[in-house]
Automatic annotation (TrEMBL):
The entry's keywords: Ribonucleoprotein, Ribosomal protein, RNA-binding, rRNA-binding
Subunit details: Part of the 50S ribosomal subunit.
One matching Pfam family: Ribosomal_L27A
Lineage: superkingdom: Bacteria
Entry function: Binds to the 23S rRNA.
Protein family: Belongs to the universal ribosomal protein uL15 family.
Gene3D superfamilies: 3.100.10.10
SUPFAM superfamilies: Ribosomal proteins L15p and L18e (SSF52080)
All residue ranges annotated as the Large ribosomal subunit protein uL15/eL18 domain in the record: 81-148
GO cellular component labels: ribosome
Organism: Streptosporangium pseudovulgare
The protein's name: Large ribosomal subunit protein uL15
Region ranges (Disordered): 1-60
């Protein structure tokens, strides 16, 4: 390259000795041949076996029982829980308690059913709308002068 020729990308080359050729195992005894990194004798020296092979033991997928029967667990309804004492804190002036109002005040998340439980006491009259109520929650809300409506 001449003195005043600018350096270009296509002029760049790796330093001498930086690029070594790939080792080609099993291509003759002069160059990593013979056993080619597989050791001597045995199943793995000759060929590979299936991924689940356990050396002649009964494989795991045959030792474990098959799933039997049917479960409704994946169809169960999981409610978000709101207790009466929390409702008393969120709505101290009383009034209507809807799902949207609970979401706006951060008591529950969107798109999940809500159940009101009777833990704690309530002193103000609330008109509560929810997907489910416990029996004690219904009694306490009615006793405080409020009403209950299930969605």
């Amino acid at each position: 390259m001449a003195e005043n020729t600018p350096l270009r990308i296509h002029h760049l080359r790796p330093a001498p000795g930086a690029n070594k050729s790939k080792i080609r195992k099993g291509r003759g005894e002069a160059s990593k041949g013979k056993t080619a990194g597989r050791g001597t004798k045995g199943t793995h020296a000759r060929t590979t076996n299936t991924p689940g092979f356990e050396g002649g033991n009964v494989p795991l997928q045959r030792r474990l029982p098959k799933l039997k029967g049917f479960s409704n667990a994946m169809f169960k309804t999981t409610y978000q829980v709101v207790n009466l004492d929390k409702l008393g804190e969120l709505f101290p002036e009383g009034g209507d308690v809807t799902i949207e109002a609970l979401i706006a005040r951060g008591a529950v998340r969107k798109r999940q059913p809500v159940k009101v439980l009777g833990t704690g006491d309530i002193s103000v009259a609330l008109n509560v709308q929810a997907h489910a109520f416990s029996a004690s929650a219904k009694e306490k809300i009615a006793a405080a002068g409020g009403s209950v409506s299930e969605l």
